[in-house]
Amino acid sequence: MLGTILSILIIAGAAVMGLVWLRNRSKVQQKATRPSGGYSGIIPSDLQDYLILEESAEGGKILVAAEQIKEDVQLRNLADALKYTGRIEDVVFLNWQEFKQRAALESARSPSLGSVVSSSTRQIEARDLFSAAAKRGASDIHIDAYTALRSAEIKFRVDGRLVPFATIREDAAKKLMTAIYNTMCGQAETSYSEGKFQDAHISDIAHLPTGVHGIRVISGGQAKGTFMVLRLLYENVSVKGDTIERLRQLGFNELQASMMKHMQARPSGFVLMGGPTGSGKSTTLKHSFETWAKRRSDLLFMTAEDPVEYPIRGVRQIGVPVGYDGTGKDGYAQALRVALRSDPDVLMVGELRDPQSALSALHGAQTGHPVWSTIHANSAWSMLHRLMSLLPQDVIKNPMDYIADPTVMTGMVFQHLVRTLCPECKRPLAGNEKDYDPSVVDRVRKIFRPGTPEYAAICIEGNTHCEACDGVGIAGRTVCAEVVLLDPKMLTEMRTNGVESARDYWLENYKGHTYLDHALTKMKAGEVSPQAIEDRLGPLDLGMILSDRRIDTDELNGLRLTESGFDKALAIAGGA
Predict the structure, then answer these.
(1) Which residues pair with 222 in a beta bridge?
(2) In 367-437, which residue ranges form alpha helices assigned H by DSSP?
(3) For residue 575, which of 28, 41, 300, 379 is within the disulfide window of CB 3.0 to 4.6 Å?
């Protein structure tokens, strides 16, 4: 009976996604007899010999493991996954002789099951993977199957960083991806096609872990195999309150939150939201619109999204339909036309991605609707360049005159997400400089002089194992933003002298704060580390260096950047 339980666990359990190849562990020469039974083929064979499952005296289940793997971090992954999904109560370790005797006894009790892995089993494996990712607060799950290596890597993106989770067989990964697409997704295409770029969405609550309302799925081919990326869409129930309170909880400061609320008060006009992929734009829009709709229940709020990511209470959300030719072509423009003809008071467009969507959204703002939308750019002001580049030249002869109208453009919000320090284990930079990158320390000292209260307040990641953050030194992520509330003076400057001149006017006359300024304020408060800022936003002193719009040789030497870091600096410079 107990062997049967073990087989069921292996076929269905979280162990499938909680274990990785123990490549660096020296092998134990003697091995217990492996309990017989059917295996899904996903668990690495060299680990199966060190684990068995038993019933406890209370009727629950315990995982019995050989002492040799007691300190292995991968075993902790397994135990966490099994406990999180309620499959075990605890883990018990035995010395090798005791474990070998126990394993032999279980093997004798259980005949071979000859189990066959079904699609429902793969669904269980997928659900356990989703749960393990949600427990860690992962934003994305990456599955990469490599044909030549006959193996696959599973990684989670946690707080903006990719973290290895498991290594499984290539064929098992392909079966898992097939089951996810074919049996769990609502998709435009009827079946999973290996190597073809496809996207879909999981919305069935039966497949979703607690706190996740949907999963966006993208799959395709790569040079050495196939991949699948799953974006977890969280409910964000921890963020509560009115507009100002929610924006403050996300990381916006008081002034930025007040300006965004003022943007909502405008009777018409266009608000652009920008930031890289995964920067929290959709989350900010969700909370802005949800509180706005609650405050103004007399208005009809509508969205056109591809796909609908977050449910927004009090808002009518329209998903982009498949186009007339069945491929999705013209779908966005169609959804916008439907929204604009449905008597909305306030409209949100998921993304400006082509001339048709840009022109339709601006038309909505020009005809008396507040319109909010996202757009890909490098800063708040560069979003205006991007918007003008999207407008069809055969329709809009002079885009600058079109958008530099105070009744059309209301403002811009650009944001990044930066890792926050664990409050339990963070430590001051002062006195610990020897543990930090010398070039980063030099750039900190260029901005905040050692010995000052500001320098003393700067903190870095802890260097001891901390139970609160599991030893990673990170508590989450916070918004670092650039919020621009446009007025006639700024727009006149933009129409007369261009976007760059208007930005300079904003910085000088309105004491404008860039997203890097916002991050430095949080660094000075001990909330984020210098390295976390540089990882996401570039060198700490880049704003000082680019004040004259050039990087000379001395400044370049001072940056001490790698080639990739210099590319990032140039990208930021181009968006300034």
Answers:
(1) 225
(2) 382-390, 399-403
(3) 379
Q: How far apart are the first and last CA of the chain?
A: 67
CA separation for the pair 83, 92 (Å, rounded): 13
Token representation of residue 246 = 């929610």
Q: Specify whether the backbone of 115 is left (phi greater than 0), alpha (psi in -120 to 50) or beta.
A: beta
Read off the DSSP letter of residue 338: H
Which DSSP category does 14 fall into? T
Q: Which two tokens stand for residue 452?
A: 């000052």
Residues 93, 236: Cα–Cα separation, whole Å: 38
The proportion of the chain whose per-residue pLDDT surpasses 70, expressed as a percent, equals: 77
Continuous segment of H or E residues that includes residue 413: strand 409-421
pLDDT digits (tens, 9 = 90+) for 134-155: 998 899 999 999 988 889 999 9
46 to 23, 293, 503: CA distances (angstroms)? 9, 56, 60
pLDDT digits (tens, 9 = 90+) for 52-99: 777 666 666 777 888 877 776 666 776 776 676 667 778 888 887 777
Nearest CA-CA partner of 306 in 160, 188, 156: 188
pLDDT at 472 exceeding the cut of 60? yes
Structure tokens at 437: 């990158």
- Give the per-residue pLDDT at 121: 77
Contact 399, 388 (CB under 8 A): yes
Q: How far apart are CA 516 and CA 568, in angstroms?
A: 14
Contacts by residues 551-559 (CB-CB < 8 Å, ≥ 24 positions apart): 558/442, 558/443, 558/446, 559/439
Contacts of 389 (CB under 8 A, 6+ apart): none
Q: Do domains 119-234 and 243-414+484-491 have the same CATH topology?
A: no
Confidence of residue 491 (pLDDT cuts 50, 70, 90): very high
What gap in Å lies between CA 414 and CA 281, rounded to an integer?
Answer: 8
CA-to-CA distance for 281 and 375, rounded, in angstroms? 10
Query: 482-498: buried (b, 16+ CB within 10 Å) or exposed (e) per residue?
Result: bbbbbeeebbebbbeee
- Amino acid 465 reads H
- Supply φ then ψ for residue 328, to 5 degrees: 95, -5
| d(C-alpha 234, C-alpha 133), whole Å | 12
Where does the pLDDT of residue 289 fall: very low under 50, low under 70, confident under 90, or very high at 90 and above? very high
HEC per residue, 227-292: EEEEEEEECCCCCCCCHHHHHHHHCCCHHHHHHHHHHHHCCCEEEEEECCCCCCHHHHHHHHHHHH
Pairing of strands 51-55, 269-274: unpaired
Fold of 243-414+484-491: Rossmann fold (3.40.50)
Residue 530 and residue 444 in contact, taking contact as beta carbons nearer than 8 Å: yes
As a whole number of angstroms, the distance between CA 273 and CA 350 comes to 10
Mean pLDDT score, 223-230: 93
| Cα angle: 571, vertex 574, 576; to 5 degrees | 110
| Amino acid at site 572 | I
Provide the pLDDT for residue 327.
Answer: 45
Assigned CATH topology for domain 119-234: Beta-Lactamase (3.30.450)
Residue type, 186: G
Domain map (residue ranges) of the chain: 2-109, 119-234, 243-414+484-491
Q: Which residues, in sequence order, are CB contacts of 38 under 8 Å at separation 6+?
A: 7, 11, 112, 113, 114, 115, 116, 117
The 10 Å Cβ neighbour count of residue 58 is 8
